[in-house]
Amino acid sequence: MNARADNPAVILVDTAAQAKSRAPVVTACFHCGLNVPPESDFAVDIDQRVERMCCVGCMNVAQTIIGAGMADFYRQRVGYSEKFDPRSLPPSAASERPETAKRAVSDVSGASAETHLYLTGLRCAACVWLAEHTMGSLCGVEKATVNLTTQSARIRFDLAQLSIDTIVAALARVGLGAEPVEHQARAALRRQLRRTQLLEFGVAALCMMQVMMLVVPIYLADPGDISQDAKQLMSWSAWLLTLPVLLFSARPIFINAFRTAFHTAGSGYLGMDVPVALALLLTFVASTVALVTRSGQHYFDAITMFVFLLLGARWLESSLRLRTAEAIDRLSNARPLRCQRLVDFPQTERAATVRADQLAVGDFVSVRMGEAVPADAIVVRGESELDEALMTGESRPVARRAGDKLIGGTINITSPLIAQVTAVGSNTLLAQLGKMVESSLAYRPAFHGLAERVARYLAPATILASAVAALVWWQIEPSRAAEIAIAVLAITCPCAFALAAPAALASTLARLTKAGLLVARGHLVETIACATDVVFDKTGTLTTGEMRVTAILGDADQWERVLALAVAIERGSIHPAALAINRYAAAHRHHREAIPVAERLETIAGQGVEATIHGRIYRLGKPEFAIPAAFHARYAALLPSLSANQTHIALCSTLRAAAVGPGEANAPSQPVFAVFSLTDPIRPDAKACIAALQARSINVHLLSGDSAPVVTETAQQLGIAPRFTQSAQTAEQKRLYVAQLIKRGAQVVAVGDGVNDAPMLAEATGSIGLAHGATLTRLSADAVLATQGNQLLNVLTNAFVLSRQTRNVIRQNLAWALAYNLVALPLAITGSVTPLVAAFGMAISSLIVVINASRLGLGRSFPAATGAA
User: Fold this and answer.
1) Dihedral through CA 798, CA 802, CA 803, CA 805, nearest 10?
2) In angstroms, rounded to a whole number, what is the distance separating the alpha carbons of residues 468 and 460?
3) Strand pairing category for 152-158 and 141-147
4) How many alpha carbons lie under 13 Å from residue 813 in its C-beta half-sphere?
5) Please, what sign has the CA dihedral across residues 257, 260, 266, 268?
6) Residues with catalytic function
7) Which of 81, 235, 642, 677 is the least crowded, having the fewest Cβ atoms under 10 Å away?
8) Taking the alpha carbons of 564, 567, 569, 572 in that order, is the dihedral positive or negative?
9) Which has the closest alpha carbon to 612: 664, 552, 551?
């Protein structure tokens, strides 16, 4: 397919012959400035000119820059981009780096841009430090963060000082591969990585079993049962079977150990693979020497068993990371690639197929049955049900009609819709939430920091202890010095320490994301685990935020007419009370009376609406505005039956209009008097949520801008103590209330959805916003609660439970790792364990940590909230 015909923004690459026929041949590469080889057939269409490139790398970089809408880079640059020379890389990096790798640029803002790269070769915290240090040392890099869980990096840099290929080249020089974070590319790389890991694990398992079959008879045989020649033959066979394990299965361990030792030796930050690689290498060398000289012990069984168990633990750890990364991908890549944009709507409904990233705010799109919504939008025509499970975790479809908001990436199920785009690209709700969740995974909690610090010093300490043990035993029993050193190296590897916190955090965030709580800042998991107080907003948080008509008081024989007049006055209004009245009318009108047309509508701010219908003036709004003096007595008679914790809207006719239009002679002249009682219902799961938090000794507070009777009634229904209830609160008063709690030493989590809740959320130790709430509130929050319906607060309750479980699991992992090393190290130094037992113990230790952390991610959904502690 022709790229230009498919998408005008895509760059058309011509052959050299086509380039010569369309533009003069130049001798300098348009991208890097080096001479273009005569045989080069690389060219890029830039500003309607064919510009020649010296190599495929420059061509791909130019394509990416122009395709990202950054043509000004070439117009405003002051010099050529740095040329990447693969010959400058270490042989292993140059051979592994794809020569045609593309680069992705996004979020261009002025002279700065952000690129998001998927990294290969990350193993531990030392790799993260190396990658961040390497990128941070480049001139022009403003910020570089590496996420070990998702194996990715975000780099913000100055376009005038740095090019993307320089960043990739710098990472390649330290042995790290980089690819653009695109859904298809990243999924393909993950599949390739998983296949490689499985093959490495399979080879280690097969060879381990064969080696054990060879050496176990030697261990079990009585003296003289097996001849020395047979033993030697079996031992050499075990040696041959160990080679694939070391050269293939353990290859990533050796590569990572060499990289971290070579590039981070000056910082003293040795990765956890360094002692592992040393133990494997020394064990193999010592065993080979023993085999050749026919003296001493050989431990080929220990080597293969060690690698097999270690790769098994890392396979489980990788599975946890993959589960989390895929949850993020489902958020970030739910938007379809193409969509139907309407041309000249509403004059015509002619549709043109375009890429979703070409949409602009204000465009009209057609969303057919079974299609995904291409961007955030608002329905202008049609009525359908949408699958919002990706966003909310709810499997039931949600009804959407004209005026309702659509979330980009959700699926239209029942009938076509026409919608107007309100946000595109990185500004869509799903894109923002996906980026927020990903950024949370880069956070290193306090427990994680402790584990990293311990692991950082434990790796060199392990090597030092091994050397000291070897020297001591050389004086005591030289023949056992190597065996003791190998056992110390193997048994005290800090893998369990390094995995203790990140494995648990990744598992927890994956489950929270699946349930609908999208964590934007990772510290929230720690914060809610230690929370002493939770502050709730009322409207839209503990209540549904959707007003409902509970009763109509007045002349019962006129209710059909009252509903028709109310719909006529409130038609098209988006006020919550108007929407409630319209919904009630749609459900309860019997259509015996047609809805009239209002000749005049006037909105009085803060009071209500005045309308002229059939020559009569009607008012709908606050009772003091709408009820004339003639009806004061009737209203006073109704007051005892009106609840103080509800909102009341009156509809009354006032006086006959002076002008009488056509058809008004037949207009009803009977006066109209009615009072609508409206309430904002409490969420069905709110009471259970409050009870569950209070059962865990958490103080629950209610702050609201509503009047005292309404707030007091709500607090009583939910069981919130009067001393923790505040009414008529402004945004600043809410913020000050939270600040006072924090000043007294409380760990405060705030939950809200309105614009007036944003200062409170920003002030709190931890904050949770609602996805349907105001944009400012979502941006201020540490997490966004995307679940809808009756399970919203249930998810919140269980997030508190899961966070405490996460804290306990991390403590268990750290305690286990510490206890294991305290017990194992003396045993290894005193010669009480062989290298085989040491290898087995270290691998099992890491496996226990990963399995313990994986328990947090079990289950697809949370159980129902209860008040049990």
Assistant:
1) 140
2) 12
3) antiparallel
4) 33
5) negative
6) 537
7) 642
8) negative
9) 664
- Count of other CB atoms within 10 angstroms of residue 198: 12
Q: Which pLDDT does position 132 carry in this prediction?
A: 83
CA gap 7, 711 in Å, rounded: 56
> In which band, very low, low, confident or very high, does the pLDDT at 864 lie, cut at 50, 70 and 90?
very low
Q: Tell whether the model's pLDDT for residue 794 goes beyond 80.
A: yes
Closest CA to 300 of 204, 196, 228, 220: 204
Omega cis (within 30) before 671: no
pTM, rounded to two decimals: 0.54
Report the SS3 class of residue 850. Answer: helix
Q: How are the residues of the chain apportioned to helix, strand and coil, as percentages rounded to the nearest 5?
A: 50, 20, 30
Nearest to 761 by CA among 771, 750, 772: 750
| Distance in angstroms (rounded) separating the CA atoms of residues 143 and 452 | 22
* Cα-trace Rg, the chain: 35
Strand partners, 366: 340, 418
Token code pair at residue 160: 């005038």
Q: How many Cα atoms are found within 13 Å in the side-chain-facing hemisphere of 286?
A: 23
- Could you say which DSSP state residue 89 is in? S
Is-contact 318 310, C-beta < 8 A?
no
CA distances from 106 to 185, 426, 432, 439 (A): 16, 9, 13, 16
CA-to-CA separations, 781 to 408, 522, 785, in angstroms, rounded? 21, 12, 10
- Cβ atoms of 527 and 446 closer than 8 Å: no
d(CA 751, CA 658) in angstroms, rounded, equals 53
The residue with tokens 């399970």 is 791
What residues does 678 pair with on adjacent strands? 549, 647
- Please name the residue ranges forming H helices in 477-594: 481-491, 495-515, 523-529, 559-570, 576-588
User: Roughly how many angstroms between the first and final C-alpha of the chain, as a whole number?
Assistant: 62
Q: Rounded to whole angstroms, what are the CA distances from 127 to 151, 255, 589? A: 11, 12, 68
Report the distance separating Cα 744 and Cα 740, nearest Å.
Answer: 6
pLDDT over 90 percentage in the chain: 10
Tokens 């640029």 -> residue: 105
346 preceded by a cis bond (ω within 30 of 0): yes
Q: Which residues contact 305 (CB under 8 A, 6 or more apart)?
A: 208, 212, 836, 839, 840, 843
Residue with the bigger pLDDT between 410 and 151: it is: 410
Query: Of 101, 103, 132, 129, which Cα lies nearest the Cα of 116?
Result: 103
**pLDDT band at residue 116 under the 50/70/90 scheme:** confident
* Phi-psi sector, 859: left (phi>0), alpha (psi -120 to 50), beta: left
- Kindly tell me the burial class for residue 344, based on how many C-beta atoms sit within 10 Å of its own C-beta (0-12, 13-18, 19 or more): exposed
Mark out the alpha helices in 722-864 (DSSP H runs): 731-743, 758-763, 775-780, 792-829, 835-854
Q: Across the chain, what does the average pLDDT equal?
A: 75
Give the C-alpha separation, 308 to 326, whole Å: 26
CB 495 within 8 A of CB 306: no
Give, in order, the Cα–Cα distances in Å from 866 to each of 254, 344, 688, 798.
Answer: 50, 54, 6, 9
Compute the distance between CA of residue 56 and CA of residue 340 in angstroms, rounded to an integer. 34
CA 766 to chain centre: 17
The pair of structure tokens assigned to 304 is: 């293969």
Q: Name the nearest CA neighbour of 353 among 340, 369, 371, 335.
A: 340
Between these two residues, 13 and 647, which has the higher pLDDT value? 647
Spatial distance between the Cα atoms of 528 and 330, rounded to a whole number of angstroms: 26
pLDDT of residue 664: 45
* Strand, helix or coil for residue 380: strand
SS3 852: helix
| 600 backbone dihedrals φ, ψ, rounded to 5° | -150, 135
**Interval 430-451: pLDDT, tens:** 776 666 555 544 444 455 555 5
CB contact at 8 A, 418 and 366:
yes
